[in-house]
Each structure stands twice: as C-alpha cells, then as structure tokens.
Design brief:
Number of strands: 19
Structural class: alpha/beta
Number of domains: 3
Radius of gyration: 26 Å
Strand order of the largest sheet: 6-14-13-10-9-7-8-18
Distance between the termini: 28 Å
CATH superfamily of the largest domain: Type I PLP-dependent aspartate aminotransferase-like (Major domain)
CATH architecture of the largest domain: 3-Layer(aba) Sandwich
Helix content: 40-55%
Shape: globular
Length: 527
C-alpha cells in the first residue's frame, strides 16, 4: 500500500470523477475516500470547478454538502501567486506551491504529464491505482505521539481564515477574539469568569498570587504558608507555588490513577494543618482527581483549591467540567494539549468575582490603569492571534476528545491480556454521565519488572514514538531543595517515574496505526 497520506486532486481528474467521464478517475477517488486519505484542492481551483458545475446545471448546494465533507480547500497566498506567474503554466505552479506548503510530502493526482510539481510526487489515475490496491505492509512506518500537522490540515480552512482576519484587523493585544474566547470557554466549563493568559504556568502563578492578595492582603504568601500538591507532575506546578511565595508540600499519588492521594492529604492535615492554606490537585493525563473528597477536605480546613487542568480540557468529575469545581482552574494551551495553540497560551477559570478582578489586574502589570498600578504584576496577556486560533480549534474539542477515548478503548481491549503492564484505571467508563470522564491527554501504561526502557527501545526501533511523563518527580529536582516539605514517603511517585510509558494518542490516528502500535507491544512481550 502506498505510504503517502495526502493527495491533491487536480481539477481535470476531479471533473472526470464528478461527471463520471473516466472510470479510472472515479475508482481512484472512491478508493482514496475509502482509505481515509487526506484529499485537497486549492482555492485557485474553485472558479474552474464552479464554471463546470454551472455548465452541467449541477445542484451546487448538494455538491457543496457532499464535496466539502471529503475535501479540504487550501488557501493560496499572494506570494505564491507572484512566484507562480514566472512559470510556463502559472495555474499549475500556484496549485503545486500552495499544496507543497501544507503537505510537503503529498501526492498530486493529475492527467497533465507536464504538471509543475516542485519536487512533489505526481501520478496519473492509471498509475496511482495499482499502489492503492497494494496490500503490502508499509515499511519504515513512523507513528508520532501527536501529529500536529495532521490536526492543522484537518481544520486548515477555519484556522487560515481566523489568522488572516486577525492579522488584517491589526488588534493584536486584547482584541475582540480574546473576549469572545473567554466567554465561550466560561460557558463551556460552566463558570462566571474565564481569563486568557500567556501560558498555563502563568495561569497557576496569577491564581496563587490573586489568592494571596485576597486572603492575606499581601502580594505574596509567606514561606510558612503551605500548599499541598503532587510531586508527579510537570515542574510548573511546584514552581508556581514557589513563585507565589509559599512552600509546596509534596504528597504521594495513588498508584492506580497517578493523581494525588486524597487519603494522604487528609492524613497530613490531621497532623500539620496549622500552616496549610490550599490544595493544588493536578488532573494528570486527562483524568480527574477525586474532587468530591478534595473539596470536602478543603471545606473542613478552610483551604482554597486551585485545579491544574493543563492536561484535561473537557474532562469531567461527577458531571462537572474540570476547572469549575475549585476556587480556580488553570489551563494550558501548549501546542500538544487537547486544545492547543500555535505557541504558548493559557486560561484561568473562576466563579469568584474578586479573584477574577485581581487576576485581570495582575496579567496587565498589576493595575486597572497601566500607568498607575496597584500590585506587582506581569505582562501575561493571551495574544489576540492565539485566541483566534483557539476559537477556530475549539469547535473540534469534543469530537477530538471522543476520538481519543475511542483510541483508548481499542488500546484497553487489545492490551488487557498482557502480563507485565498495567493499563489506566477506569478505562471501562465511556459516557459523560459517569463519575469520571477521562479525556486521555495521554494514554499511559506502567511496565513492570524494570522493562520500561526495553519496551521503549523496542517501539522506537519499529518507528513508534513514546514518552515518559515524568522521569523525575519534583522532590528530586534541585530547584525545590530546601524549599519544600515531604509527607511520609513518595515511593509511588518514584516508582511511577521509572515505570510509565505514554503511547501515541492522536485524535486523527488511523486504525492501522493503532493496530501497529498494539502489534509491536505484543511482539515485545512474546519475545
């Protein structure tokens, strides 16, 4: 089977297939659709297509509904147009240049033997058909953890339009797209306020700083103030506590969920409650912490709760969206997240009017008026351009989260019989009405008996990417030396760091790629 996944269909082939003028063109197009390959035309081809639809008195609305469910339209830029005019066939050159920008390893299907290809592979329908009918396994298969190029191509029309409009408007700082995005996410999560910020890290820092101002009437917490969190997370979680002035208290995880163990939170507070001001639970890998218990503990001890939702956008606990349960929720829109942007971005959610007001001041240098500030602030705004991209991508979030869950279901079913690995907990839950709605930012298994590195090497040799999140628990990092407290042992976190592997989790991942990952894991354990 041909290994290339993206095909530009030249208008001559497209018209032959639409009006059934050539059997080979019809068969090739049907085969590409059946195989789930990416199909593209360029915006420059639309006038020709429109002319022939009118000429044949076709139902354009019906055609549009069917056609644009299968094809993506690539925007052609002015520079590509200027470059194309210098070639013998400027129309073909414009098509090829536009396609190559989006799909640098794509295939052009055309009947024009002299098509300007700029190094892209070109096939006629007759020559392409044998490759599509070849069932030989693909050699040198490469399966990434996440294919951001595929995600861009899936929604390129929305994203290109959003970017071009925003650039043309020139409202680059706190433009209308920022407010629109904040309002849409607030409605989606179910909170009164969402505040766009420059990163997930700054979302954490601003939340804790605002809480210090509100609760203590001072810019920062004191070092004697303690905030409970997990050591099995990204550095930013613990670092934000230090930056807020407080001391992180690392409490071990539940080895089945990888999230902070609420029973150990309660045990710590039974002995050491006098200096604790808050809890910072991390919903790791897309799975919620036990929020009912954490909120109950917080209520009993008069503590704030800031949810770290960086990996769990769209996830739920007991019917509530994560980020709507604690005093505040913090989100990252780093490119690899379930909802990711083209750079850095983040958000804070809250139902607390005073906190929201303080957060908005802090992200703009600390004041309502930038020339007369009240607090030590930051330049931590969410860029308008990133907000526009997030608005374009947001419409796909539920679809993509469901695709992640479907992939997880396949992994669960096909890997469940392997002795030597532990699958994610609660994987059998599959509906939004369940207590836990896991959105699988990562699909993470544990490899027992010290075979973690061996399996990772085996998969790498077969072209399967994997990652370890996280190889070093926070309490082992130099930055926290002398600035943290540890409750009892953190053996579960330390063991997890040596045993976890995250498998490819791509919402647009093809069934054959999922099957290949599973087959490669089975091969390792058989040997």
């Amino acid at each position: 089977m041909i290994s290339m996944n993206n095909f530009l269909i030249d208008v001559n082939v497209l018209l032959d297939a639409i009006f059934k003028r050539d059997v080979k063109s019809v068969v090739v197009l049907e085969k590409l659709v059946d195989l789930g390959r990416g199909l593209y035309i360029t915006a420059s081809m639309i006038p020709t297509l429109d002319y022939f639809l009118k000429k044949h008195k076709a139902d354009k609305n019906k055609f549009k509904d069917i056609f644009f469910g299968k094809f993506k339209v690539i925007t052609s830029t002015g520079k590509e147009g200027a470059d194309a005019i210098g070639f013998m066939d400027g129309e073909d050159a414009l098509i090829a240049l536009s396609f190559k920008r989006v799909c640098p390893r794509g295939v052009i299907v055309t009947k024009d033997s002299s098509f300007e290809s700029f190094g892209l592979t070109v096939y006629t329908p007759v020559k392409l058909l044998p490759f599509l009918e070849d069932s030989t396994p693909i050699k040198d298969r490469q399966i990434p953890m996440l294919d951001l190029q595929a995600e861009y191509r899936h929604m390129l029309e929305d994203i290109d339009h959003a970017i071009l409009n925003t650039v043309a408007e020139t409202k680059y700082i706190l433009g209308p797209q920022v407010k629109e995005f904040e309002e849409k996410i607030a409605e989606y999560i179910g909170v009164k306020h969402c505040i766009g910020v420059s990163s997930g890290t700054e979302a954490l820092v601003l939340s804790l700083r605002a809480l210090a101002i509100k609760l203590k009437g001072q810019e920062y917490f004191d070092r004697s103030d303690e905030i409970i969190t997990t050591p099995f997370t990204f550095t930013a979680t613990g670092d934000a506590i230090l930056r807020s002035g407080a001391t992180p208290v690392f409490i071990d995880i539940d080895p089945l969920t990888y999230n902070i163990d609420s029973k150990k939170i309660r045990a710590y507070l039974a002995r050491n409650s006098s200096h604790v001001v808050g809890i910072l639970p991390v919903h790791l890998y897309g799975q919620s912490c036990e929020m009912d218990e954490i909120m109950a503990i917080a209520g009993e001890h008069n503590l704030f709760v800031v949810e770290d939702v960086a990996q769990s956008f769209g996830g739920m606990w007991n019917g509530k969206k994560l980020g709507s349960i604690g005093n505040a929720g913090t989100f990252s829109f780093f490119p690899s997240k379930n909802l990711g942007v083209f750079g850095d971005g983040g958000m804070i959610s809250t139902n607390d009017d005073k906190l929201a007001k303080l957060m908005r001041m802090l992200l703009k240098h600390g004041g309502k008026d930038k020339y007369n500030v009240a607090h030590i602030g930051y330049n931590a705004r969410l860029d308008t351009l990133q907000a526009a991209i997030l608005l374009a991508k947001f419409k796909y979030i539920d679809e993509f989260n469901e695709k992640r869950r479907k992939t997880a279901e396949i992994y669960n079913k096909e890997l469940s019989g392997i002795n030597g690995i532990v699958l994610p907990l609660n994987h059998e839950l599959s509906t939004e009405s369940d207590n836990l709605y896991h959105v699988y930012h990562q699909y993470t298994i544990r490899v027992l008996n010290g075979r973690n590195d061996q399996l990772q090497t085996h998969l790498k040799e077969r072209g399967v990417s994997t990652m370890v999140y996280y190889p070093v628990p926070l309490h082992k990092m130099k930055v926290f030396e002398g600035k943290m407290k540890i409750f009892e042992g953190l053996e579960n976190s330390e063991n997890a760091s040596k045993e976890v592997i995250s498998l490819p989790m791509e919402p647009l991942q093809k069934d054959e790629d999922i099957a290949y990952v599973i087959k490669s894991i089975h091969e390792y354990f058989k040997n």
